[in-house]
Design a protein that fits this description.
Blueprint: H1 10-28, H2 39-48, H3 51-59, H4 63-80, E1 88-92, E2 96-99, E3 104-113, E4 120-124, E5 135-140, E6 148-161, E7 164-178
Parallel strand pairs: 2-7
Antiparallel strand pairs: 1-3, 3-5, 4-6, 6-7
Helix pairs in contact: 1-2, 1-3, 1-4
Length: 184
């Protein structure tokens, strides 16, 4: 089993996996983690359950390292129990966009985990209006006066899971910078 690729980046995917593991594994192991043999593992799960600790740890990794670790995490979890992922939605979008004199149209996408495949999303924020869809077009206008700005976009995912209707909200903040993209 590989880690789901539903979230916007390998780091976000790893954080999703960590949250799911920390929430589900203790219940799946029903008392086994109370054994002295698993003290270190129980303590590690406790640290991972702290969102700030997990976020700091993941932020220090490269995207490649985070992706590899998420894959390993799911493989090892699958050896002892069935991985359980909560329903979650995310927006796949660039972290930053450089804009010059002309407006840009940038494709973005909503992704969802733990729901049936036939879901749609209603978009809000600086997106081109259209019918509910998994994809949207972000409208990035040239900056006037400021050197940077932040665009906030939201996707209201309407889905079904296990025969029930559900709504998931995904949000993304995208930095907009004035000028041509600097060489890497």
């Amino acid at each position: 089993m590989t880690a789901p690729s539903m979230t916007s980046s390998p780091r976000a995917r790893l954080l999703h996996a960590i949250r799911a593991l920390a929430a589900a594994l203790p219940g799946q192991m029903e008392g086994l983690l109370d054994s002295p043999r698993f003290t270190a593992g129980r303590e590690a799960l406790g640290r991972l359950a702290d969102p700030e600790y997990a976020a700091r740890a993941v932020e220090q990794m490269s995207e490649e390292e985070a992706s590899e670790l998420a894959d390993r995490l799911f493989l090892r979890w699958a050896r002892v129990a069935t991985p359980v992922l909560p329903r979650e939605a995310a927006i796949v979008a660039p972290r930053e966009i450089w804009v010059e004199e002309e407006p840009l149209h940038v494709a973005i996408e909503a992704v969802a985990e733990g729901v049936d495949e036939d879901w749609t999303a209603l978009w809000s924020g600086p997106v081109v209006e259209g019918p509910p869809s998994k994809r949207a077009t972000l409208l990035v206008r040239p900056l006037e006066g400021a050197e940077t700005a932040t665009l906030h976009v939201r996707a209201h995912v309407r889905a079904r899971a296990g025969g029930e209707r559900c709504i998931l909200i995904a949000e993304a903040n995208i930095a907009v910078r004035r000028g041509p993209r600097p060489p890497v």
